[in-house]
Description:
The structure holds 2 protein chains of 2 kinds.
Chain A: H1 3-34, H2 40-44, E1 54-60, E2 66-67, E3 73-79, E4 84-90, E5 102-109, E6 115-122, H3 131-139
Parallel strand pairs in A: 4-6
Antiparallel strand pairs in A: 1-3, 1-5, 2-3, 3-4, 5-6
Chain B: H1 4-8, H2 12-44, H3 58-85, H4 88-119, H5 128-149, H6 153-167, H7 170-180, H8 200-232, H9 237-250
Helix pairs in contact in B: 2-8, 3-4, 3-6, 3-8, 4-5, 4-8, 5-6, 5-7
Amino acid sequence: MKPLRKKRLYIVLAILAGVGIAVALALSALQENINLFYTPTQIANGEAPKDTRIRAGGMVEKGSLQRSGDSLDVQFVVTDFARNVTIRYRGILPDLFREGQGIVALGKLDADGVLVADEVLAKHDEKYMPPEVTKALKESGQMSSAEGAK
Amino acid sequence: MNWTWFHKLGSPKWFYEISGRWLPWLACAAALLLVVGTVWALAFAPQDYQQGNSFRIIYIHVPAALLAQSCYIMLAVAGAVGLIWKMKLADVAVQQAAPIGAWMTFIALFTGAVWGKPTWGAWWVWDARLTSMLILLFLYFGIIALGQAISNRDSAAKACAVLAIVGVVNIPIIKYSVEWWNTLHQPATFKLTEKPAMPAEMWVPLLIMVIGFYCFFACVLLMRMRLEVLRREARSSWAKAEVRARVEGVR
């Protein structure tokens, strides 16, 4: 390679390295703010701010969903398999919402550490499966806990 | 290592001839793969057990998103080649690939929003994956606008190349956003190291669609680049002869 080209190559690499380092520093400084939601463990450790709208995410614990008989009020427990957070919500839940499903809820923490949500989003994973396979897995008892609550 | 092919790329005439030979093959492959992939994906692939038919959007969404990112990496490589070796063809590639990449990014964002509404319960969420993808769209817009705004071709090429190289740091952020942060977006569907988390009758048509999208991209890019090369070389004798042959062939 000619010296001039080599010099230009080094300049390009230097620009790339410089921008890369700057962005990496900025992102690591913003680390907390980029997370879409707090996990139940973070909330239990007091990392989530009180009195502002936060998002909490995790798996809906099996058998924790309680519906009110005469209104749209629901209450359920979200877990990351270490700690739990109780979520209260009034409204229609998304189609994919079910026990064992990952969800993200938006709302405020009240004094008892219960999240009063005004929006619930269902989180989907990257696993896709035809219905027949699910049925076969369920019949043979191999279905993991995540899918069992349908 | 033999570098003649690389230096030959500096010759617009050589590029025009070789790309003319590849183009019919690429066009056939793209048409065949896209038709087979679409029919297979929409009519024969099984439904998802949770999402039913709405999961079929991945057959557009995943290839478009993959291509949008690959296209940007290609822009950055072409930009670097243009800056270091002063190759004119690299600038042609940057200018002509940017609009295609922008469309692919838009398709990925749009199909994602359409799918997100019934599945997540929201059209748009400011999570790391969606936001970094939106930044990618704006980077494409920036490159297109910069190329159009500067009338001197050499300065425009230099500015676009620098922007393309600087913007490439966004690509690993998009790629790993779902692993570094808590996002609503699910992790990658296709990984190089693992088998996809779905049965073969679902991922084979997806793979066909992905390859089809890449062939389509290569085909459209070559066609756009050939036109631009002809326009830029309009004063050279081979370009004049080529245009004359085309025009007379049509008559």
